[in-house]
Each structure stands twice: as structure tokens, then as C-alpha cells.
Amino acid sequence: MKLAKTLGELKKSGYRNLSIKDELRKNLISMIKSGKKRFPGIIGFDRSVLPQLENAILSKHDILLLGLRGQAKTRILRQLVSLLDEYIPVIKGSQLNEDPFRPISDHYRRLAEETGDDLEIDWLHRDRRYNEKLATPDVTVADLIGDLDPIKAVREKLDISNEEVIHWGIIPRTNRGIFAINELPDLQPRIQVALLNILEENDLQIRGFPIRIPLDMMLAFTANPEDYTNRGNIITPLKDRIASQINTHYPKNIEDAKSITGQEAWLERDHKIQVPEILKDIIEEIAFQARESEYVDQTSGVSARLTISAYENLLSNIERRAAINGAEDIYPRIADLYSVLPSVIGKIELVYEGELEGPNIVAVNLIGEALKKTFLRIFPPPRTERKKKENIPAEDLIPEESVYAPVIDFFSSGKQLEISDEMPYAQYKSRLSEIVGLEKIVKKYRKIKDDRELFIMMEFVLEGLHQMNIIAKESPDNKFVYTDMIQRILRS
Predict the structure, then answer these.
(1) 87, 115, 155, 379: which could join 123 in a potential S-S bond, CB 3.0 to 4.6 Å?
(2) 400 with 380: CB under 8 angstroms?
């Protein structure tokens, strides 16, 4: 398509200009009717956040996304760009992206009057119509809105009140676009006050001079509920002028969480690593357990980045084992799960009781709870209380732990089992095969595809029994030694 180069050509083309919010509204309605996915890559919000966001856009609202860290707030805002026209016409040379039909600065109003239909225009791509600013305590009004430039006034011999001596800030430079402020409560209250006129009147003023520049833009903000109490707050008049507040949330189920991790994690390794779904489930369950833990500060949140970095560390540990052993088998093990500790420790904020326990212990316990919960989804609980039933002989009451009796007997006879995440696969397989009955337990409750899945599930049964306090486990020098619980107690 040939793009017009002058205002006259633009008029002949029949181009119809819209305000930014009308433009967003028009394109959103068109995408909804076409059945296109409006926010690709945003998972788990289809029945909650996204309908509310679309309603806000259709209502021509400025918006606030409120939610804990790692809830895709910034990603959602950046995707609003896809709802803009691909190109819009602007007056050539204007720093404020001025509409050729309606110039807003004195200089370009005069230029439009002088040149008429010969007014030169440029075309602005939608990617250049979105700007964002991270709110920090050192942000100034001049950064956001602008300030007078006395040096320019002297050089150009202009009065200080002339708008041509203004050095424009990032907000007016985003005119006819979308401007986002991340972590809004971190802005000082006096800086927030400067945003009031933009939201209320869609214009701005510089210092005390009567300069009024009507802006056409959509403002979007993000905030963390923690900020309202710990670092700052959104001043009431500003919050009142933000028409729609939309609350985000963490994934509500394991499947959504796995989809997010699979989408975001770095998977381009030298070898294709096949990770069974059970390990993916356990990694996601770590985050779910952390979001319920009394040792973790829930007001701070547990970011989705925990599971993303944890999954990447898991893959890297598998690669490292293959490099050590020179083996092509790069199938994961349950022992690999403890390689994600750095990801867990670095992504959780602890309350006082958690600090007393220590971040490493809390992280290990979270992994243990995730293993335990996943284990109980597949295998029966090792212990159940015997119901008291009259007239039933005790020998007829078979406790469920009899399923695991061969494994328990193996350890109670004084034997131990040592495995590690660096052990060659043949040795790993041989060690697990020593436990009579372990393979039978796995095949009873799980349909097995191949030997590799069989042995990881056999290891999983051992880890599950340990987490249920049926057998003991020691971890000397990054090895895992499974032993009898009673003998372990007696030794200690």
C-alpha cells in the first residue's frame, strides 16, 4: 500500500483518524468477531483477567493491573500494542506524534496553516507507540512530563514561557499511544499528583506557565498489593481517576502452570531431554506449596519465575550428568529435583519463623511436600488407621502399608540403598533393582512405557516413602542413602 506523504494526499485517500481509545476499541471488536486470540501466551486468565481487561478497553478506560510479582502484568500491557493500527500518520518532525488533522503545539499549528495540504507527514508504526517507565523514588516530573530548557531559550532567543523551549518528557512523547508505569505506588505522591491532570483532562502543564497541550493517550499502570503497606501507596485522587482496576492471580491448576513454564523456560539444549510429566508436576507443586506455606511471606508472593528457573536448572543438571558420564542417556531422575534448590531459595521471601528455620531447610521441605502430594495422587498412602469394627478378626484387617511391605522389609533387614544424581545409568538401574517388590508396586499403580520411566518411578516410590516417614534418608556429599527409619533413630 502506498502511504500518503502530504496532508492533501491523506485527505484524498479517505483516511479517518480516531482517538487512541477509539482505535483500541475498534480493533478489539474486530479481533473478537474474527475469533483471533487477542493475548497469545497469556495462560490461565481466559475466564478472569482477560474478559475484564477487554471490557475496560471497550469502555475506553485507563487501567490498573493489581497483582503479586510474576503474574504477567507487564506482558499483558505490552501486548496491548497488537490492538493498535499498524501505522498512523503524524506530522513530520513532531516530537509529540501530532495528528496532521489536529496539531496540538503552537509551532505545528502555525506550520499547518502556512502549508495547508502540502503539510508533510510521516507514518508511525505501532511498536513505536508504546512506552513504559519503571516507577522508582528518583523519578521526577521532568522525566515524565518535561521541563523548561533555559539554555534552548537563550540560544533561540525565545521567551521562557514559550512552549518551544520545553524539553518534553516521556509521557507527551507517547502522545497518540499507550504509556505504562510499572509499580505505580513507588512513585512519590507529588509525582503522582502530576499525573492527575493527564487522567482528568488529557492535557498537561509545565511548571507554573499557562501551557496546555491536549494529549490523546491511554494510560496503564501496574501495582503490587504489597506496595500499599510496605513501600508506598497510590494516592486516592489518582486511584479514583483510573477507571478500571483488574486483579491478576497465579495459575489455579497444575496444567496451566506447566503450560506457562513450558512456554517460558529455555529448552534449546544440545540434546533433546524428555522430561516425564510427573517431574513437571512436582516442580509446579513446589510453587503451589510455597504459596500455602506458613514460612513464606504470602504478601510478597511466589513468582511463576520460580518454576521457570527451577525447570531450567533441572535440565542443566541432567546435561551435567551426561557430560560427567559421557553417556547419551539424558533421562531425568527424582534425585535431579534437588538441583532446583537455588531457584527456590532465590524466589521466596520468608517470614520470621522461616528465617529461623533457614532458607535452605524451608526450600528442601517445600520440595518434600511437593513430592509427597504428587506421590499420593498416584500411590496409596503407606499408613492408614485401622477402623475398629466389631466381630472382624484382626488378621482380616490388612493395612495399606502391606503394599509396601517388601520395600520396608528390605530396609528393616539392615540393608541400605545409595544413589546419586551423578551415578551412571547402569549403576543407578542396578541399585534400584536390588529391592525386591519395588518394580511390582510401580507396575500395579502406573502404566509404564519403558525401562527409563520404570526406574524413575521406582526411585519415586522410595522418595515418597521417605516423605511419609516410612523409611529414612541421609544426604552425605550430595548422595542419597535410604535406610531403615528405626535404625536411623537408634543411631541418632
Answers:
(1) 87
(2) yes
Predicted confidence (pLDDT) per residue in 113-153, tens digit: 999 999 999 999 999 999 999 998 889 988 998 888 777 77
In DSSP terms, 89 is beta-bridged to: 123
- Amino acid, res. 231: R
Q: What class is the 254-378 domain?
A: mainly alpha
Supply the DSSP string of 238-285, one letter for each residue: HHHH--EEEE----SSHHHHHHHHHHHS----SS-----HHHHHHHHH
Specify the 3-state DSSP secondary structure of 293: coil
What Rg do the C-alpha atoms of the chain give, in angstroms?
A: 31
Where do the structural domains in the chain lie, given as residue ranges? 7-247, 254-378, 398-491
Q: Would you state the cell numbers that stand for residue 365, as one nine-digit string?
A: 521441605
Annotate 97-159 with DSSP letters as a single string. Answer: --BTTB--SHHHHHHHHHHGGG-BEEEEEGGGGEEEEE--TT--HHHHTEEE-HHHHHHHT--
Q: Give CA angle at 352 (350, 357), nearest 5°.
A: 75
Distance CA 91, CA 111 (A): 10
> What local confidence, expressed as pLDDT, does residue 254 receive?
96
Name the residue with cell 518535561: 146
Strands 244-247 and 218-223: unpaired
> What is the model's pLDDT at position 66?
95
Q: What is the pLDDT of residue 161?
A: 65
Residue carrying C-alpha cell 499547518: 112
- Please state, in angstroms and as integers, the Cα–Cα distance from residue 148 to each residue in 157, 166, 288, 367, 417, following that order: 14, 4, 52, 57, 75
Residue 401 has pLDDT above 80, yes or no: no
How do 146-148 and 130-134 pair as beta strands?
unpaired
Residue from 413, 428, 306, 421 nearest 367 by CA: 306
> Helix count (H) and strand count (E) of the chain?
21, 12
To the question of domain 398-491 being in CATH 1.10.10, the answer is yes
Cβ proximity of 315 and 329 under 8 Å: no
Cα–Cα separations (whole angstroms), residue 57 to 20, 81, 218, 245, 293: 11, 12, 9, 12, 37
In angstroms, the CA 333 to CA 314 distance is 10
Residue 271, all three cell numbers: 540434546
Beta-carbon contacts of 107 under 8 Å, excluding residues fewer than 6 positions away, are: 163, 164
Which residues have C-beta within 8 Å of that of residue 49, sequence separation ≥ 6? 42, 65, 76, 246, 247, 248, 249
**Average pLDDT over the chain, rounded to whole?**
89
CA–CA gap between residue 382 and residue 402 (Å, rounded): 8
Q: What is the full DSSP assignment across 363-380? A: HHHHHHHHHHHHHHHHS-
| Fold of the domain built from segment(s) 7-247 | Rossmann fold (3.40.50)
